[in-house]
């Protein structure tokens, strides 16, 4: 069962780029951002009510709002970048998030960064640079892939701050209601500018686009539960490898569904930063997985 749950989470995250690209054929990125939170809240609330018989939304905690703003930033910039770029572009979010969290561990929590950690960060940065470059002439980067890389960088920073907020909140609120509270606040944040900035429906209304919006919400609301439960039941090596296979699946789906060009630069950069993330994962002891039902690092890959 653990392997199945881990596979569900991994495959679900890998479809985010394709689903956003599909939904963008009907609505703009602002609507997509709101829909990811809206349908995610519905799925998560139903799950929590079935599990606990009640749901709790906490709005009076500083880190709830910090997490909500960060997650909103993560989704808004990711959706804009996916709309104007390739559907595999969000593979850049994870290595950027990894580097930001590594530095945050050293600066905010005074954790010592080992030599292996620095090597991991360097590999992540090099991999992102190679993927972003993709053999493009330097004079075209600023107007093309350079813009999408900037957007994905901002998205990765938002994802990292969201993870930090969860670390600060896990001791005071359970992870399900914590995320429900964060997603609810994020939905409000991304909904505010919609009447002014959004173009609403920008293309034909299709079943596939609506299905993509709903599935994005399901992924937002439930994938972290699958991952959290899966990692309790399988060896750590499987967790590290399977979690990072998301980027490979993402590239595969982008080619199969949209025929996005997959160059040697994309593959080389991907393998470089995956190596960096794996190196970092294997350098972190798995201390709390079997001692407590909470796994404090299980959100580092949540989409």
From TrEMBL:
Predominantly, its location class is: membrane
Which subcellular locations apply to this protein?
Endomembrane system
Kindly give the Pfam families that the UniProt entry links to this protein: EamA
Membrane-spanning residues: 30-50, 62-82, 88-109, 116-135, 141-164, 176-196, 208-227, 234-256, 262-284
Keywords attached to this Swiss-Prot or TrEMBL record, sorted alphabetically, are: Membrane, Transmembrane, Transmembrane helix
Q: How does it sit in the membrane?
A: Multi-pass membrane protein
Listed SUPFAM superfamilies: Multidrug resistance efflux transporter EmrE (SSF103481)
Q: Where is the EamA domain?
A: 1-132, 150-281
Q: Which family does it belong to?
A: Belongs to the EamA transporter family.
- Listed name of the protein: DMT family transporter
């Amino acid at each position: 069962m653990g392997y199945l749950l881990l596979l569900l989470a991994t495959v679900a995250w890998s479809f985010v780029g394709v689903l956003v690209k599909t939904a963008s054929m009907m609505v703009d990125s602002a609507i997509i951002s709101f829909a990811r939170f809206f349908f995610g809240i519905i799925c998560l609330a139903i799950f929590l009510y079935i599990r606990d018989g009640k749901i709790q939304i906490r709005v009076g905690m500083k880190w709830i709002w910090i997490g909500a703003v960060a997650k909103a930033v993560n989704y808004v910039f990711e959706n804009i970048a996916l709309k104007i770029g390739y559907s595999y572009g969000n593979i850049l979010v994870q290595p950027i998030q990894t580097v930001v969290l590594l530095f945050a561990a050293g600066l905010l929590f005074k954790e010592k960064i080992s030599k292996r950690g620095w090597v991991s960060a360097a590999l992540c940065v090099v991999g992102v640079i190679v993927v972003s470059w993709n053999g493009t002439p330097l004079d075209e980067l600023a107007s093309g892939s350079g813009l999408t890389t900037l957007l994905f960088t901002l998205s990765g920073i938002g994802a990292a701050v969201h993870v930090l907020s969860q670390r600060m909140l896990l001791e005071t609120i359970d992870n399900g209601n914590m995320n429900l509270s964060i997603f609810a606040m994020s939905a409000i944040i991304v909904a505010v500018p919609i009447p002014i900035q959004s173009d609403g429906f920008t293309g034909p209304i299709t079943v596939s686009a609506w299905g993509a919006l709903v599935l994005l919400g399901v992924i937002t609301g439930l994938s972290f539960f699958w991952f959290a439960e899966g990692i309790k039941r399988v060896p750590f090596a499987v967790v590290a490898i399977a979690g990072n296979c998301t980027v490979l699946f993402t590239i595969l789906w982008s080619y199969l569904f949209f025929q996005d060009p997959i160059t040697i630069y994309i593959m080389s950069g991907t393998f470089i930063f995956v190596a960096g993330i794996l190196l970092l994962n294997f350098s972190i002891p798995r201390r709390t997985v079997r001692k407590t039902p909470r796994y404090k690092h299980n959100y580092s890959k949540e989409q």
